TrEMBL record:
Pfam families: 3HCDH (PF00725), 3HCDH_N (PF02737)
Naturally occurring in which organism (per UniProt): Actinospica durhamensis
Protein keywords: Oxidoreductase
Similarity annotation: Belongs to the 3-hydroxyacyl-CoA dehydrogenase family.
The 3-hydroxyacyl-CoA dehydrogenase C-terminal domain, residue ranges: 197-292
Binding positions for CoA per the UniProt entry: S59, K66, S129
UniProt site positions, description: Important for catalytic activity: H150
Biological process (GO), any one: fatty acid beta-oxidation
A molecular function (GO) term: NAD+ binding
Name recorded for this polypeptide: 3-hydroxybutyryl-CoA dehydrogenase
Span of domain 3-hydroxyacyl-CoA dehydrogenase NAD binding: 16-194
Gene3D superfamilies assigned: N-(1-d-carboxylethyl)-l-norvaline Dehydrogenase, domain 2, NAD(P)-binding Rossmann-like Domain
Pathway(s) the chain acts in: Lipid metabolism; butanoate metabolism
Length: 294
């Protein structure tokens, strides 16, 4: 991946904070570092101080092995990332992207803390899949400088980012972030209303839930349903395999958020999906979901 140094130099956003080192947080940190940005990754557990850099290093190594980047780009990206546990370390960041668990209470607490830890000029963003950005902004004293910046997994591969302003977001802040994501990060942005699921998940989740209901009622298997959608509709990945990739717990969390907001039956998580999450069968990240990923 080549870095457009002119774009980085011309952007007012050069220092990035990322909160959370899970799949999304690590992916965002890696992307920003590859694009020549100074990245500070904030983690909540001491074990993540070493686990997070290892995860990013392993991802970068895979990119080198596939010929997507050179070894020098890998080393330079790793050198641009620092990891810590104190949110106060984000005090000099221009943009802080929250990528914590898809739990509203956790995110509200984080935004309250980030509001105190960062400079008043900093822009605060969340990459939540479904939680109201307006509610997150309400936990701060800077509603004009809060918005949603929703990346898709895997961050380094999928080109789309949903930009989600609230009724309070300053237009110039939204424009600045969208320009940054477009030109510096090299993504394609769409603007979405601050309603649960935004654009993609509001359309995608009912489709995934319908596939789960089809497995639940039989006689088609997950593999047959996926094959039908891949070969019959030219989808690159069937709905059950995609659910495993996203994480079944994340699918349930988004479904519950959509159902709470819209009260429509198509957003209700099927019993089979709920039981699988209760059993810890979350998909790829646990090694088993609708498929075995051992």
């Amino acid at each position: 991946m080549s870095v457009d140094t002119d774009s980085v130099d011309q952007s007012a956003i050069t220092r990035i904070g990322v909160v959370g080192s899970g799949t999304m947080g690590a992916g965002i940190a890696e992307l920003c570092a590859l694009r020549g940005l100074d990245v500070r990754l904030s983690v909540s557990r001491e074990s993540s101080l070493t686990a997070a850099p290892r995860r990013i290093a392993a991802s970068l190594e895979r990119q080198v092995a596939k010929g997507r980047i050179e070894a020098g780009a890998r080393d330079a990206a790793l050198a641009r990332i620092t990891v810590g546990m104190d949110l106060a370390d984000l005090s000099d960041r221009d943009l802080v992207i929250e990528a914590g668990p898809e739990d509203e209470a956790v995110k509200l607490e984080l935004f309250t803390a980030l509001d105190k830890a960062t400079a008043p000029s900093a822009i605060l963003a969340s990459t939540t899949s479904s939680i109201s950005i307006t509610r997150l902004a309400g936990a701060t004293t800077r509603g004009a400088r809060v918005l949603g910046v929703h990346f898709f997994n895997p961050v380094g591969v999928l080109p789309l980012v949903e930009i989600v302003p609230t009724l309070l977001s300053a237009p110039e802040v939204v424009d600045e972030v969208q320009t940054f994501v477009d030109t510096v990060l090299g993504k394609t942005c769409v603007r979405a209303a601050d309603s649960s699921g935004f654009i993609v998940n509001a359309l995608l989740i009912p489709y995934l839930l319908a596939a789960v209901r089809m497995v639940e009622s039989g006689p088609s298997t997950a593999a047959e349903i996926d094959q039908a959608m891949e070969l019959g509709c030219a989808h690159p990945m069937g709905p059950l395999r995609l659910s495993d990739l996203i994480g079944l717990d994340v699918v349930v969390a988004i479904a519950e958020s959509l159902h709470a907001e819209f009260k429509q039956p198509q957003y209700a998580a099927p019993a089979l999906l709920l039981r699988m999450v209760e059993a810890g069968l979350l998909g790829r990240k646990t090694g088993r979901g609708f498929y075995s990923h051992a």
